[in-house]
Amino acid sequence: MRVGVVDIGTNSTRLLVADVDGGKVAELERRTSVTRLGEGVEATGRLSDAAIARVCETLAAYREVIDRLGSELVVAVATSAMRDAANGPQFRDEIRRRFGIDARTISGDEEARLTFLGATAGRNPDAETLVIDIGGGSTEYVTGQAGGDPGFHVSTRMGSVRHTERHLHADPPEPAELAALAEDVRATLQGDVPAAVRERVEAGIAVAGTATSLAAIDQELDPYDPERVHGHLLHRATCERIVAQLAAHTVAERRSVTGLHPDRAPAIVAGAVILLESMRAFDLSQIEVSETDILHGTALTAVERGTG
Q1: Which of 50-64, 205-219, 289-303 has the lowest mean pLDDT?
Q2: What is the pLDDT of residue 308?
Q3: Omega into 172 within 30° of 0, i.e. cis?
Q4: What are the angstrom distances between the C-alpha of 19 and each of 32, 133, 269, 293?
């Protein structure tokens, strides 16, 4: 079945059009636009008019792609920003009315399950694996064995946009701000992920924009090459170096860093700190970066159910 999947996240809005057959996902088209839907939600509790306009402009383009490629099924998921904003339900209604897309606001638990399914599809269940999904407004930690349901999952109120707005006010950020950010991440992990869960993890997979950006920066990719990003191993020492590199630059300077999409420059430092502190908390010396994530998990689930 040909399916179109839209992921309306806190920092980006993404599209996957793929043919799904026998548990395999064959990509036909994939797009990502940094729309910053969650900008200001931490402070105001509402989606701004400017953020809504950015997402709508992107969805109009995505709807054309979905129709051109003849998707038989169209599904959409909305995550942290839509969950947290008081006017989230109204925006969902607007999306349905204007684009004919029923954007389902999913819980953090469902987000974790779909991400784990997408990231581990087709892998051998030979190790207790951690999947980390760093979003703009939330970060999901999911552990289990590939091909099965997660044994543990938690969705934390910790994300690249949320924690940029919470901690990083100077440009470039001050050392004290970075220290407070890292301490916040450590405290969240210690509170939300039991020590026993952290200790039994043997391998890690990182998905979404922070991890893929760091993989591209590490390889100095220009232009971005998803085939070289997928499966790339990020070593902890490399993450430490990249965090230091990015934090030393202003936002304007970061926009010129090879491998980093300019629109990700404002929030990449917080995202990179979250990834680095996560690797430390789970005692991972390296982590694999994956291009397959919640988009693929949503596609598989939708086709299995035969409905959006």
Answers
A1: 289-303
A2: 47
A3: yes
A4: 19, 24, 35, 16
Q: Identity (one letter) of the amino acid at 248?
A: A
- The continuous run of DSSP H or E covering 164 comes out as helix 160-167
Tell me which residue of 234, 230, 303 sits closest to 271, measured CA to CA.
Answer: 234
Please state, in angstroms and rounded to a whole number, the distance separating the CA atoms of residues 144 and 153.
Answer: 9
Q: Give which of 274, 207, 225, 206 is closest to 246, Cα–Cα.
A: 274
Give the strands of the sheet with 12-21, arranged side by side: 24-34, 12-21, 2-8, 73-78, 103-105
User: Which DSSP string do the residues of 25-88 spell out, in sequence order?
Assistant: EEEEEEEEEE--TTTTHHHHSS--HHHHHHHHHHHHHHHHHHHHTT-SEEEEEE-HHHHH-TTH
Q: What is the CATH number of the domain that holds 27?
A: 3.30.420.40
User: In this structure, what token pair is assigned to residue 41?
Assistant: 């939600």
Q: Residues, the chain, total? A: 308
pLDDT digits (tens, 9 = 90+) for 216-269: 999 999 999 999 999 999 999 999 999 999 999 999 999 999 999 999 999 999
Q: Is 250 helix (H, G, I), strand (E, B) or coil?
A: coil
Residue 215 is assigned to a structural domain of this protein: yes
Q: d(Cα 10, Cα 138) in Å, to the nearest integer? A: 8
Query: Which domain does 204 fall in, by range?
Result: 123-290
Evaluate whether residue 304 is within a structural domain: no
Residues 59 and 133 placed together within one structural domain of the fold: no
Q: How far apart are CA 303 and CA 21, in angstroms?
A: 9
pLDDT at residue 305 in the model: 79
Beta bridge partners of 203: 129
Structural domain count, the chain: 2
Q: Is 195 exposed, middle or buried (0-12, 13-18, 19+ CB in 10 A)?
A: exposed
